[in-house]
Design a protein that fits this description.
It is a single chain. This protein is α+β, with helices and mostly antiparallel strands. Helices cover 36% and strands 22% of the residues. The chain has 19 helices and 19 strands. Strands 1, 2, 3, 4, 5, 8, 10 and 11 form an 8-stranded mixed β-sheet that branches. A 5-stranded mixed β-sheet has the order 13-14-15-17-16, with helices on one face. It has a 4-stranded antiparallel β-sheet with strand order 6-7-12-9, with no helix packed on it. The longest helix is centred in the middle third of the chain and has 21 residues. The radius of gyration is 24 Å and the shape is globular. The protein starts with 16 loop residues before the first strand and ends with a helix.
């Protein structure tokens, strides 16, 4: 066996999935999908073929010949806690395609099923989140970014619901019995009150970018190729449309910086608050948390990041999760270039400053295992969700910024466009990038220590803290807080959430409870509508023993499932006294069903680690 990815059973000596025709019957009552997949391989194959699965019930495998002969299959009995279970198919000679039928588990790690009481509409809702290695819990696949696929998708849903996907919408139509290819029986597929939403993804994408959602979803047009969708009614849609009104202009800025936008549409779906990330860059249909809607267009920076992925991450993809910085470091750099044009250099510098603080904070988090402060860490046996951090984002950004400073922005812009054009619709590793860098920027290895940046732990000595007048002012005010000085109303008069976030991130953790409460009494930070500000403040307050904020902590942990907020709040509580630990465990016991499975697993890991 020639493994291509430490997080996949895929054998590099065998062909991989090139196309999947998927038919999904969404069974909301059972929180399960009954499905079929017609799989086409990249080349004919004979003998054993391995696919990734997790908690799937695989019912059958058959040839696509007229006889539809059964294909022997074996599903590993003991699931690996990280990889799941290998599905082994023993293919007849020269097999180029085959048909699978299967069902997902109610505990599928990629799916969250929301019951009517959990939604704004009072109707059921389901959405997927496949990054990093969760597509295998929806359908058997070569679940590695090294194996890019095209796909078609039929979603059979109740007619009162609608569906979206990270693919071109073809039609909303009545079910036809020939659609499902054994996913379920004809009577179920064609039952009264059901509808089929049909999608096509003709561009090859890694499996983690497979995505869909179904529920009472409405929409608002933002521009000729941009639309926002949401499950939450007209008020949320109107708020989202105002927050993201500038998205079409952002797409144009991205094209001017990085080349043509190759995905036709850039639509946005605002998901329920249990969505575990700020955003997910699914091509054609970005998924977003509602916490990015702040009323001041600040959420556009999250959108800028997901838009930047359209070039770096979606067009060019990391080959494995050990190369994750190729996705996120490049995208963080590209995001800040877009923000610089759209919102100005000062705003981009603040963004960089928050990132710099985050990178330094990660050094503390991983102080006992500095392997995960490398740009290319060794990940065999490690669940990517357990070590997800700001390192690939911010250290990756710093590496690219270091190269830009060395060769100058015009030369780096030329390099970046050539890089994207050369590797578009490919998955590459760090070594391929370095070879391309050295070939196109001769002598760079003598000017920048590439080994220290890629293989070294910690923050390299030639990384650089950002600098701007606003950034310096905020850092100075934060330093003065330790001696008891609270910023005056004049000093913060023009601050938005991002300035407050940077201020709070730069405060010393060695402060008195009285200082924290005095700051909050003046500026009501614990009540902020901006969760970045609220969580940064609560994270400061918890270690001081300010129990007056425990109600706000509890509300936050029960109202929002974004891991960016769950991780620091649960960690802060779990590291304190027995009272705070018991509070964390009680909140989790009451809130865990609200969380997406990925977020639930992360919170469980934190509480388990700290007893």
């Amino acid at each position: 066996m020639a493994p291509v990815d430490p997080h996949s059973y895929t054998d590099g000596a065998h062909p991989v999935t090139a196309h999947a025709s998927l038919a999904f019957y969404l069974d909301f009552s059972a929180s399960a999908i009954h499905a079929s997949a017609l799989v086409t391989l990249s080349a004919p194959h004979s003998g054993d073929l391995l696919l990734d699965t997790r908690a799937l019930a695989v019912h059958s495998a058959s040839t696509t010949t007229e006889a539809a002969d059964p294909i022997p299959l074996a599903l590993a009995a003991d699931a690996d806690p990280v990889l799941g279970s290998a599905l082994t198919l023993t293919l007849p000679p020269d097999t180029s395609s085959f048909l699978l039928t299967f069902s997902t588990s109610p505990d599928a790690s990629a799916l969250q099923w929301l019951s009517p009481p959990q939604t704004a509409s009072g109707l059921p809702f389901v959405f997927s989140q496949c990054q990093s290695i969760h597509a295998r819990s929806i359908f058997p696949c070569h679940d590695t970014p090294a194996a890019r696929i095209t796909y078609s998708l039929l979603l059979n849903v109740p007619a009162r619901l609608s569906a979206v996907a990270a693919a071109r919408h073809v039609a909303r139509r009545d079910p036809v019995s020939s659609d499902h290819r054994g996913a379920c029986d004809d009577a179920l597929w064609c039952a009264p009150g059901r509808i089929v939403e049909e999608f096509q993804m003709a561009q090859c994408v890694p499996p983690y970018l497979f995505a869909f959602a179904a529920g009472a979803i409405g929409s608002r047009d933002l521009g000729p190729r941009t639309r926002v969708y949401a499950e939450g009614g007209d008020t949320l849609l109107d708020d989202a449309a105002r927050e993201f009104a500038g998205v079409e202009d952002m797409v144009k800025v991205g094209e001017s910086l990085f080349g043509p936008y190759d995905w036709e549409r850039f639509d946005l779906l605002v998901l329920p608050p249990s969505f575990p990330y700020g955003g997910m860059e699914n091509p054609r249909m970005v998924f977003l948390t509602p916490t990015v809607i702040k009323g001041d267009a600040a959420g556009a920076q999250v959108v800028a990041h997901e838009l930047a992925h359209s070039w770096t991450g979606n067009l060019i993809t990391n080959k494995t999760n050990e190369d994750f910085w190729l996705n996120e470091g490049f995208t963080t750099y590209a995001e800040r270039r877009i923000v610089e044009v759209v919102q100005g250099e000062e705003r981009a510098a603040l963004n960089m400053g928050i990132g710099w603080r985050g990178l330094n904070r990660m050094m503390e988090r991983f102080k006992d295992n500095m392997e995960f402060t490398k740009l290319k860490p060794k990940m065999a046996g490690i669940d990517p969700d357990d070590v997800y951090s700001e390192v690939p984002y911010e250290k990756g950004f710093q590496f690219l910024w270091r190269i830009e400073r060395q060769i100058g922005r015009p030369a780096f812009d030329e390099f970046l466009k050539k890089y994207i054009a050369t590797f578009k619709f490919q998955s590459i590793d760090t070594e391929t990038f370095l070879e391309f860098l050295k070939a196109n920027v001769p002598g760079i290895e003598n000017q920048v220590d590439l080994d220290v940046w890629i293989e070294g732990t910690g923050i390299p000595p030639d990384a650089m803290e950002p600098d701007s007048a606003t950034y310096r002012k905020i850092c100075t005010l934060a330093a003065e807080f330790k001696s008891g000085k609270i910023p005056s109303e004049d000093e913060v008069a023009d601050w938005s959430g991002q300035e407050w976030e940077l201020y709070l991130e730069n405060l010393s953790t060695d402060v008195e409870a009285s200082q924290v409460t005095a700051l909050d009494e003046r500026y009501k930070l614990s009540e902020s509508r901006d969760y970045e500000v609220k969580v940064a403040f609560l994270q400061l307050a918890i270690p001081t023993g300010c129990r007056c904020y425990f109600n706000e902590v509890e509300k936050c942990l029960k109202q929002v499932g974004r891991m960016k907020y769950l991780r620091p709040l649960y960690s802060s509580l779990a590291k304190c006294s027995e009272e705070e630990k018991m509070l964390a465990k009680r909140i989790f016991s009451e809130a865990h069903e609200f969380y997406h499975p990925i977020a639930r697993s992360v919170a469980e890991s934190i509480l388990s680690k700290h007893g």
